From TrEMBL, chain A:
Keywords annotated in UniProt: Membrane, Transmembrane, Transmembrane helix
Protein name, entry field: Uncharacterized membrane protein
Lineage summary: Bacteria, Pseudomonadati, Pseudomonadota, Alphaproteobacteria, Hyphomicrobiales
Domain of life: Bacteria
Residue ranges crossing the lipid bilayer per the database entry: 35-55
Automatic annotation (TrEMBL), chain B:
Gene3D superfamilies reported for this sequence: Domain of unknown function DUF1214, C-terminal domain
Domain DUF1214, first and last residues per copy: 71-168
InterPro entries cross-referenced by the UniProt entry: DUF1214 (IPR010621), DUF1214_C_sf (IPR037049), UCP009471 (IPR012038)
Protein name as annotated: DUF1214 domain-containing protein
Length: 216, 191
């Protein structure tokens, strides 16, 4: 049996009167227990904060309503890329864009099928990028990869790629450049560098000349 | 009495978690940055394997970053001596640029927006500057006109420089660049 149990066996009347040292020891013991409890609760709170932090950062792209793909979702529906430098009336401008480049965008939704993008190169540097919804570039290509002045690729989901591969003729190599988009919705961005101020109208024509429509 | 500790844990977790996440993605994140001299870049911001912080940052606004194969953007908020870029001073941007099909160098406010300038000249491209005998760039940044290549600065306050390299082979390994392969930013004097 422990000493504590022994002390309990002594009748209250015979117990020596509590001294100030005992009271202070009890107070310190209670304070220590309280602090330990507070520290453990804070530790649990910090652990929870870490989980909330990670989940929030990972969920922001999915919940975003002001990202480029959402804001420009209505552009390019007519089968041609539409200029966003400057943006159409009522739409926000690109943040931290280069004043020495023009950009035209084509929104896509792959639930209707793969998207075919065709761009004709010109004298100014042209870049085509596929931006997925919620931020991030899925694919980028420049006019250096053009064949006889034409850049052409098809944007599709992983499932649509598998289906296309299954339908390919056995033993034949497809000449189609296939790009897998990690999201169903996104943007194809045509960016042309305006090397001199007087190149702007030519750059705009080159960017808006990009065609994007259903591949099949 | 158990409600109070539980409320404390939830309040601390939710409050601290949400606030730290908000601040972590309010600006370009520290994660994934590559610092070369005075210049900073985020090589993976236009790549498929973008980190979650940069992706969340991009998703919070209308950003269309350069794709990894399309080009690379470098940002400088300080000069080569490590002092913040101040519009009350004059700066010389000189030296070479990495191999690229074209580049542009522009002035922006600390948030990346176009600054308020007295004249419409906030950037230069490689085709617009006057070059020296050795072909290097030499651009003076000042509020008052300068001879040669002059980029006007706003009347006061901090600013940043943005160098965009188009169709460059270095976009995937920007972190391995040496500082002497990028333009130097030297403070000339201050008002």
């Amino acid at each position: 049996m422990s000493a504590i149990d022994d002390s309990r066996a002594v009748p209250a009347a015979k117990r020596p009167p509590a001294t100030r040292a005992d009271a202070s020891r009890r107070f310190l013991s209670r304070l220590g227990r309280g602090l330990l409890r507070f520290a453990l609760l804070t530790l649990a709170g910090l652990f929870l904060a870490g989980i909330v932090h990670i989940v929030t950062v990972l969920r922001i792209p999915a919940l975003a309503t002001h990202d480029a793909a959402t804001v420009y979702a209505a552009l390019g529906a007519n089968g041609r890329a539409e200029l966003v430098t400057p943006p159409p009336a009522g739409l926000p401008a690109i943040l931290d864009g280069d004043p020495n480049s023009v950009a035209a965008v084509c929104s896509y939704d792959l639930s209707a099928g793969p998207l075919r993008v065709i761009a004709h190169t010109g004298s100014l540097p042209l870049g085509l990028t596929v931006h997925r919804r919620g931020g991030g570039v899925a694919y980028a290509i420049t006019d250096r990869a053009a064949i006889r002045g034409v850049l052409e690729f098809v944007v599709m989901t992983r499932e649509q790629l598998d289906e296309r591969l299954a339908n390919d003729e056995e033993g034949e190599t497809s000449r189609e450049l296939r790009v897998v988009s990690p999201s169903l919705q996104g943007l194809v961005v045509a960016r042309v560098v305006v090397r001199r101020a007087f190149d702007r109208s030519e750059a705009e024509a080159q960017a808006t000349g990009v065609a994007c429509g259903l591949a099949d | 009495m158990r409600v109070l500790p539980l409320a404390y844990v939830i309040a601390l977790g939710a409050g601290l978690g949400l606030t730290s996440a908000r601040y972590a993605v309010a600006e370009r994140p520290w994660v994934g940055r590559a610092q070369v001299g005075a210049w900073t870049s985020w090589p993976n911001s236009g790549a498929r394997d973008i980190d979650p912080y940069m992706r969340a940052y991009l998703a919070r606004g209308v950003h269309l970053p350069l794709g990894a194969g399309e080009g690379l953007e470098l940002i400088a908020g300080q000069d080569d001596a490590g002092q913040a870029l101040d519009a009350r001073c004059r700066y010389l941007v000189s030296g070479a640029t990495p191999p690229a099909r074209g580049w542009s160098l522009g002035v922006a406010d600390p948030r990346g927006r176009p600054p308020q300038l007295p004249i419409e000249r906030e950037s230069f491209t490689d085709a617009e500057i006057v070059r020296g005998e050795r072909g290097g760039m030499r651009i003076v940044l000042a509020t008052t006109p300068e001879t040669g290549n002059w980029l006007p600065l706003p009347a006061g306050g901090r600013f940043q420089l943005r160098l965009r390299l188009y169709d460059t082979p270095i976009s995937s390994h920007a972190g391995e660049l040496r500082p002497d392969t990028l333009p130097r930013i030297t403070r000339i004097d201050c008002r």
